[in-house]
Amino acid sequence: MKMTLGIDIGSTTVKLVVIKEGQVVQTWYERHLSQVRSKTLELIQQAKEQIGGDPFHIAVSGSAGLGVAKAADLPFIQEVFATGEVVKKSVPDTDVVIELGGEDAKIIFFTGGLEERMNGSCAGGTGAFIDQMATLLDVTPGELDELSLRSEKIYTIASRCGVFAKSDIQPLLNQGARKEDIAASIFQAVVDQTITGLAQGRRIEGKVLFLGGPLYYFKGLQRQFVKSLGLTEETAVFPEMGRYAVAIGAALYSQQSGPQLTYDQLVERLQRAATQAPQTRRLTPLFEKEEEYEAFCDRHAKASVPLASLEDYQGDAYLGVDCGSTTTKLVLMAQDGSILYDYYSANKGNPVEIVRRQLETLLPLCQGRITIKASAATGYGEDLIKHAFNIDAGLVETMSHFKAARSFNPKVDFILDIGGQDIKCFKVRNDSIDSIMLNEACSSGCGSFISTFAQSMGYDVEEFAKLGLFSKYPVDLGSRCTVFMNSSVKQAQKEGATVEDISAGISISVVKNAVYKVIRASSAQELGENIVVQGGTFLNDAVLRAFEMELGRPVVRPRIAGLMGAYGAALYARELGLSRSSLITIEQLSQFAHTSKSTVCGLCGNHCNLTVNSFGGGKRYISGNRCERPLGRQQSEPLPNLYRYKLEKIKALVPVEGWRGKIGIPLGLNMLENLPFWFAFFTKLGFEVILSGISTRSMYIKGQFSIPSDTVCYPAKLLHGHIETLLEQGIKNIFYPCMTYNFDEKTGDNHYNCPVVAYYPELLHANVEGLNNVNFIYPHIGIHKRNTFAKKIREELLAFFPELTLRECRQATEAAYEAYEQWMADVKAEGRRAIDIAREMGKKIVVLSGRPYHIDPEINHGIDELISSFGIVVVSEDCVADLVEPAKVQVLNQWTYHARLYNAAKYVCTQPDMQLVQLVSFGCGIDAITTDEVREILESRGKLYTQLKIDEITNLGAVKIRIRSLLEAVNERERNNGV
Amino acid sequence: MASEDRVLFTKQMKKDYTILVPTMLPIHFKLMIHIFREYGYKVELLENAGKNVVDSGLRNVHNDTCYPALLVIGQMIDALESGKYDINKVALLITQTGGGCRASNYINLLRKALKKSGYGHIPVVSLSLGMEKNPGFKITPQMMNRIFYALFYADLLMLLANQCRPYEVHKGETDQLVDRWAERLTQEMKGRGILSYKKVKENYRRILSDFADIARAKQEKVKVGVVGEIYVKFSPLGNNNLEEFLLSEGAEVVVPGLLDFCLYCIYNILMDYKLYGMGRFKVAAFRRVYRMLVRKQGDVIRIIKEQGTFRAPGYFPHTVSLVKGYLSHGVKMGEGWLLTAEMLELIEQGVPNIVCTQPFGCLPNHIVGKGMMRLIKQKNPDSNIVAVDYDPGATKINQENRIKLMLANAAAIAQAKQPQEQSSEKQLQFI
């Protein structure tokens, strides 16, 4: 009569199994909604009958189980270890186990050295991530799964972490992509994430066992896994009991640990645990007393906007539509600025439908009495809405918010807007926007995080936020990205924090995120005198209160905080001075029918995923395009673009057949600048230089599985694909040198490369299996030492090519340095030419500043073309960096590429028609230093600073907003200065 | 070029300014602080920790900057704001290693943060191999001599303490002995003149025999090595009290000493000459220093072995040779090849269970930490390494859960090596 119990308490569910005589006799599986301890107790009580009166062994496992085990003095077993034990016993011929839980992902390799691994702290959730995405699509997780099975195509969704994926999905939704396709793409993203985040260089092959809740429930997820890993029905196993593997492991383990318990003893211990005092760091409550809250409400009630009655009003009116990332807002404004009608709603995955329904109600009401003179749209879905309903004008959302805030308080000098997905803030000086700060893709998810989190805990967002107002001990959840918050919440739950405490903690965290990460203020004085806060998230009193507490001063929150974008658009519409609006009429509206389908553009190598929206009556709107070509417009002579120029110049290097055979060079990182050097060097030596080619997404996927560190920058990750491409071609000699030092351009304190650029070849050698079968030549070599270079490189190459003479190497060296110098001179000359052309044509110039490898279209995602499409001449930082005396900076200026940035920034400050936009690859640690410094150089001389963070993400929506904001701000400044 | 208009630490300041030093290695820093005091500096070790330090770091440093910078700068500004010090009579000391890693920039980031918080007038002193000079802060040959031996002493004390603490019968005895010796060594190093090496070696022996006298339980504990980025590896503030956690989980902690890092820095200068012909004039001097340090390390190892109770640290020239087949000694940014070498050294010494600590997004660690793990695993199938990221948002529970997994595996590996008694266990059809 041997009985054992196993409990697995994960981040979202509790699982209990009872095992008797080596047989699982019963299982329980329930969501705990963060009531970890009471739910565990409840399950045990449910199992009372099965357990009976005999003593038994028990053990606890799972990410939230540790606290329970400690508090109730029960044996604990680490969950991945538990899984490993159970699989070893039950399915001994398993090669790999993949287990996805609520928030953890785990992998176990059995064959070729046991290795058990969990996702890194940045890898985002899995089950919880799928839940969040389902909420975003306004379906249940089950429906999401069904949708995915009917997919036709897969979109690229960034797979690194949930927040990234979300910012890819949102625009797809707004562009009207099919939900079926998005659903399947979400599952594919989970698969990709597992491969890069967990496999870390080891191949997932052989018999693979899939465990955990999500992999049990979601057929669509199973399908994507099987497909991506190339498995068959025999090799991909989805066991019926997969969800209980950890609990069973715990039960097995319990036999060798601790004394036996009876049912009553266990219940008593759990009851005791459920009442223990919490220990997480706690913060000051938002409100101590009810009266405090009332005073707070009274103060904010004063900030309201005049309302006018839609039923009674006669005259002109203006329509503003703000189609945001998660919500759509609509305002009808009377001539005097009072609000006739407003509407605020979640997008529910289809903003077009929402606006259509609103117009259907609104237009008949206006008929005959109210004339809509003009309309304007703003927000992520601006273009879509504008085309769908013939709206007169569009404006970038930053401008509409600014207009609204200023109409509200003309003295406003600081605006903070926390929306569903963005944090935006701008400082205002001399009646124009002085600096714009937006959150990076990494820390986004602010407002929508609260709502999805509320839903996951079974509350609606308003109710959830209210709970936090009077929390006695708000939990401290830190101030980084939402993924980290999830695990902080988990920790708090483990220690028994209440829903009230968590709610307050989340509000405080969102605020900290804004203050520390986006605004980066060190004191409240820095922000300004007249602070206006807006965006839907600030309608939440807890967030507003937390912000005031963080700043230590009161701020103004307009009553229409959530509508400010739409209100600003309406104000803009009024400024247009139109006599008649082109807005869709009632008759046209009745004909309106919206459908969308997706297709891949084949007009150039970018292969953009296009979404074609049709609105009935032959009206179409295409989105997802990077250039104008698919729209069928005539292309005029393109403006100069140094990124394009440099890329074309590299493409034009054609291999010359050589008597020494072929040598392969991967075209990534610093090679995109140093290539002319090595190309000339090896060509001169008699090698045919074979390049891996310009990066593509599929090339990345090809090498994805051998990436050991998922937080390294995307340009580095691409190298794995480049190497695989060369290997595929059967190249026997691959050359990719380690370069601690770069060329010494004598503009900084030193001339290093960054650690990743310098040593990535070492990492490739250690992780790309195929390199063992070829000559991978990756010497540590210094090109900064011209006089000894020939001798040194010969020493390194002799092992592979023993017949190389010093004379040959000397000649090749000469050719190499000459070619490189000529190349750099060409680039500079082209840069000067571009600037001259711009000035002749009266065009503005953007110095798009990054690293040499940012010319790779897979890295920059066509941002250069996007900027160019606004009628701007794009030059790169290296063309202007030498035009000034080297900049004096406050930091150690020891990297060649980064020194160029500082100098380019300094130069831009001297040129009224130039702006600087900095490209930053996500994960670039060095840019944490350069961005602050470049910003300071620019702002101290009155220029605007714009930073674009790029990663695998292909969504250009956010980039567009930043670029347009920059251009609008510059124009506004010029208008104000009477230019 | 970096601007040179920094605030200098003048001779006048030496008289009445208090120099604040952030903590990293408790034993090492304590010994060194005393030496500075002996030579007329008013020095104080910062021991403030907790929420305020992190918050102050978040406010004052770019949040994507590495965690050590955030903590060190946070700790300093938090101290300045505590009201404990006269902010017109205070200076800050920070180490500066140089090299292509972000870490070389800590001092500049600190200056920027000070300026932003209105403390721009406070002088910052760089403790480095001659990167920045200050008229009021000079390390004389006599001081150097003492700092140098303090390093050897502290490494030895740390090594022995780690081998005693988990087994001590009387709780706290090890730490008391460390404190006693720290005090005694401080007293001995007072006075002028060069220390007698004979005396130093005698001290090594005495220290060894004192530690050998600690009553220790005879039980086998799982040994866990700690490697990683130098600050989070050593500093309890940086690694959420990792050592304490490992001890509480019943492990013996093995941490390679600070001397290895110093030797690594010098070795890199030799490599720069070898690979690139750089620093032709200084290389001879550094070669002499290198040889001398290695010789003295050899002495420590010999003395430990003669005494016979404790495991000796690895001999640096041997450590150097371990990375062959893994990566080149040209990898010299951050902890560079040393980090890989230390993991291999631990495995060789019978400590295959390793926590590789790193600040979230640490650039060199992509290569020498996570980047080498596959190869290490392939060549040493019994190795059991867990990479743990540290940053202000990472939760202790996540870190501890991963370390627990590593510990569970360690126990399983140890068990697998035992002769199997009940290997005929039947296969169960659970899933």
TrEMBL record, chain A:
UniProt KW Ubl conjugation keyword: no
Domain DUF2229 intervals: 662-880
Keywords associated with the record: Iron, Iron-sulfur, Metal-binding
Any Pfam family: BcrAD_BadFG
Cofactor(s) needed by this chain: [4Fe-4S] cluster
ATPase BadF/BadG/BcrA/BcrD type domain segment(s): 5-253, 319-573
Entry GO MF terms: iron-sulfur cluster binding; metal ion binding
InterPro entries reported for this sequence: ATPase_BadF, ATPase_NBD, CoA_activase_DUF2229, CoA_E_activase_dom, Dehydratase_Activator_Redct
Secretion signal, residue range per the UniProt entry: none
The protein's name in its UniProt record: 2-hydroxyacyl-CoA dehydratase
Protein's organism: Youxingia wuxianensis
UniProtKB/TrEMBL annotation, chain B:
Matches recorded under InterPro entries: Dehydratase_Activator_Redct
Protein's name according to its UniProt entry: 2-hydroxyacyl-CoA dehydratase
Organism whose genome encodes this protein: Youxingia wuxianensis
